[in-house]
Each structure stands twice: as structure tokens, then as C-alpha cells.
Fold:
Amino acid sequence: MGLKEEVLRGIYGYGFNKPSPIQMKGILPVIQGNDTIAQAQSGTGKTGAFTIATLQTIDAASNHTQALIVSPVRELAL
Structure:
């Protein structure tokens, strides 16, 4: 998927090795700047998909707000 080395290290650091089907379909459209709607069952990796895509688009050298994630439930916010 062409992810940044820093993002990949974080993914592997959390013990993930292979993207789920929803992640394989959802990450690239978000990175490419497309509005994306994804639907999948609970526990399939939707949160990971938008988080990975968001982290990929952030410029770590820039010191201004680049992303805002609004979470509808406390579990996702944590």
C-alpha cells in the first residue's frame, strides 16, 4: 500500500501483520483523498482502516492541526 515506514512500524508494533479485507479496500481511497463510506461487521478493522489512512496523510514535520477524528463512542476514543 506504500505506507510510511513509521506507520508500518506502529502497525507491526501492535502485532498486526496482514490487513483485513475492509482495510485492504478502505485505506487507499482515503489516502488518495476520496470520500469513503465503508461498512463491515464489528471487529473487522474499520477503526484501523481510517486511523492508518489518517496517519499516512499526516506530515510529522508540520506543527499544525492536520486531522480531526470525532468518535461517537467512548471505546473508539480510547
About this structure: Residues 5-77 form one domain. DSSP finds four helices and no strands in the chain.
